[in-house]
Amino acid sequence: MSALDTLVQIIANGVKDIQSKSAERGTSWPTPDTPLSPENEKLQSDFAASTAPVIAAACQLIATLKHPHTYLMDLTLSSNLSSSVCVAEAAYVPNILREAGTKGLHVNEIAAIRNVDAGKLGRNLRHLASRHIFEEVAPDIFRNNRISSSMCTGKLVQEMLDSPIDRWDGTDGFAALLSLNGDFNQWGNGWLADHLLDSATGHSQEPNEAAWQRAKGTKLTIFDWLELPEHALELRKVSIGMRATTSSDSDTVATRGFEWASLLSGSLVVDIGGGVGSLTMILAKVHKHLRYVVQDRHAVAKEGERLWKATMPGFVENGIVQLQGHDFFAEQPIKDAGVFIIRHVIHDWSDKYASKILSRLRDAAQPTTKLVVMDIIVDYMCRDSGGVADIPGATRSQAPEPLLPYADSATGRTYSLDICMMCAANCQERTLGHFVELLKSAGWKVERVCRFDYPLPQQLVCSPL
């Protein structure tokens, strides 16, 4: 059987299996036209492992069938899709169309609400509709579909117009996360090649010497830039957008992986660089026998305290949770932590700075303190495990040939995120071997890896060396 035949067979068998599993639940697999609902969202999340090889085979089939020039040009131009998504979010289009109903709305009426040029907005929406985001039901008349509906904040359009900075409050953060792409990822992407080939910046590990700074014409790090008064909207967006990276963790992070329930009553869990405490909110709801401190920059901690009092009253007021302003490059003031959590933080820093953060935690650790690193682990695009097979949980099952070694490489954002981090702050996602060496240099030993299905981050459970 040829590689092409194998790919087709993987797709056919996979689709049949997915349809069968859906039927067992008494439902059909949703299409872009299916209304968005918690039920079909859960169906797709539950079957993510089953769909991954099908999507991988479909992507590889496209790469096989397309002419190389066509394939490369299509990928190069796909960055414009990101721009169109940001336009739709900023113009409140998903919410406007939600209120318009199933008949849709003419682009002139959509554009008038935010005073956007109707012709230009329509071209962006048509671009998205060509990729199954929104639907053009008649010339220049658009309506939501299941995919575009996922960008809705659930708020009335008038509420959003009255207070744009509050439009993501009380949401799952997904719309804010999408909007962040325009603020950070796109700016740096266009300058990356020039930046890397410049001998003055190409080898830099400094967080204020990345392609994003070149594009913005600033020497500030992203974090310093966000705290300028004129960027209050962007800071709010970051704080809330991070919720979207934890929304799918709710049932999993508190019950699987590290054994939170086994900690003694009153044990202190410190969430390092925890933002407004999105992860701690999940843990605190389930493990009420523990105490928590969320550490981040002072401005973020202040915003976090506001959100906790609004969404989880009693936890801060009763001392169960403390939001603490702290610079994680400075000496760690907490010396009695049972567990340090550091989630999606190490990827924000180059090795030079990540090692400093981890070393500060090691200096403050007791012999029994655990460090739980929750982050993306980048897989090699070869079938070599990279020499870490002796660590429990290190290795993953591999997809059969001719697929790439890991089926979720086609469906995951891992490799794209790695380049985003490079553009934004000279930082990166890391392979497991890279993590092991980095942690060792800071005095930590990786005991085991707790594996989760994408898009959940992996957990590296570490102890002091």
List strands and helices in order, with pairings.
Layout: H1 3-24, H2 38-46, H3 48-65, H4 68-77, H5 79-90, H6 93-100, E1 105-106, H7 107-114, H8 118-129, E2 135-138, E3 141-143, H9 146-149, H10 157-162, H11 174-189, H12 192-197, H13 211-216, H14 222-226, H15 232-241, E4 268-272, H16 278-286, E5 291-296, H17 298-311, E6 321-325, E7 339-343, H18 351-364, E8 370-375, E9 377-378, H19 414-425, E10 430-431, H20 432-441, E11 444-450, E12 458-464
Parallel strand pairs: 4-5, 4-7, 5-6, 7-8, 9-10
Antiparallel strand pairs: 1-3, 2-3, 8-12, 11-12
Helix pairs in contact: 1-3, 5-8, 5-11, 7-8, 11-15, 11-19
The stretches of 5 or more residues where confidence is low (pLDDT under 50) are none
If you average the pLDDT, what whole number results? 92
The first-level CATH class name of the largest domain: Alpha Beta
| Category by helix and strand content | alpha/beta
Largest beta sheet: strand ordering: 6-5-4-7-8-12-11
The biggest sheet amounts to: 7 strands, mixed
Overall number of domains: 4
CATH homologous superfamily label of the largest domain: Vaccinia Virus protein VP39
Distance between the termini: 51 Å
Number of strands: 12
Number of helical segments with 4 or more residues: 20
What is the 3D shape?
globular
Short description:
With 465 residues, the chain is an alpha/beta fold. Helices cover 45% and strands 12% of the residues. The chain has helices spanning 3-24, 38-46, 48-65, 68-77, 79-90, 93-100, 107-114, 118-129, 146-149, 157-162, 174-189, 192-197, 211-216, 222-226, 232-241, 278-286, 298-311, 351-364, 414-425, 432-441; strands at 105-106, 135-138, 141-143, 268-272, 291-296, 321-325, 339-343, 370-375, 377-378, 430-431, 444-450, 458-464.
